[in-house]
Design a protein that fits this description.
Na+/H+ antiporter like fold, mainly alpha, about 0% strand
């Protein structure tokens, strides 16, 4: 909602005219980062529960948390919103497809979760912020600042609650390679996004932010539904910030099926 007070639909549309940057961000998000996650899981994470959790995050190419990270980093908010919306829409096709092929959950259930995330956590608050900016432009700046502070507090509280719920398995990730794999993939995504973001610092920070965070909410929904008896799977989702799987998972797919059983 705070970001909605700062940008308009016209600014978002104009930002997406930088089609080269848009293509770079999508390729990085859909191809390059997924390969790094797959390799990291294969080499560093022997535990099937954590490996499955890390790969579940790989299903989702975007998440609302990217917008928060972009705001904190001082990135281009209009460009960040445009990229996140594009990738969230792509998830409507990609996530149910992967889930259906691997037998993790019904496509309908996951589709509803993705559409709900896009509508309630991205489109609705942005629309509310834009409407307030249009109706009360004099108060939009103040509201935007307060909303962004409130969002930051809410984010910290949310992470603390989820981490506390799975504290033992989250701490266990440090010793089994899951945390290291998450750090490696996140670092690669942030650096590669910055390098491929064009000549302007704002767009570099934007591509860095939108490729450095995955859609953890959708991954947690699948984890808790398909792997309710395995908290390590949910912990694998919690500890990672980014990931998306590549075809030809080999051992990673075997880990998913073992976890399913």
């Amino acid at each position: 909602m705070g970001l909605g007070t700062q940008v308009s639909l016209g600014e978002i549309a104009r930002s997406l005219r930088q089609w080269r940057l848009v293509v770079r961000a999508i390729v990085l998000d859909v191809v390059l980062v997924p390969v790094v996650m797959w390799i990291a899981v294969e080499l560093l994470v022997p535990d099937e529960g954590y490996a499955t959790g890390l790969l579940l995050v790989a299903f989702a190419a975007a998440g609302p948390l990217r917008l928060k990270l972009a705001q904190v980093m001082g990135a281009d908010p209009a460009f960040a919103i445009g990229i996140v919306v594009i990738l969230e829409v792509a998830n409507i096709v990609l996530v149910p497809l992967w889930a259906s092929l691997l037998g993790l959950s019904s496509s309908a259930d996951i589709l509803v979760d993705i559409v709900r995330t896009l509508a309630l956590l991205v489109a609705l608050p942005l629309a509310m912020g834009m409407a307030f900016r249009s109706l009360r432009p004099a108060n939009a700046v103040t509201l935007g600042r307060r909303a962004l502070v409130l969002a930051a507090v809410g984010l910290v509280v949310s992470v603390a609650i989820i981490s506390a719920r799975y504290l033992d398995v989250v701490l266990g990730s440090v010793g089994n390679g899951a945390a290291l794999a998450s750090i490696i993939v996140t670092s690669f995504a942030l650096v590669a996004g910055f390098l491929l973001g064009g000549p302007r610092r704002a767009t570099r920070l934007t591509t860095s932010a939108v490729t450095g965070v995955g859609a953890n909410a959708a991954a947690l929904a699948v984890a808790t539904g398909a792997f309710a008896g395995q908290p390590a799977v949910a912990a694998g989702v919690v500890i990672t910030r980014r990931g998306r799987a590549a075809p030809g998972w080999c051992g990673a797919v075997r880990g998913l099926h073992h976890g399913r059983r």
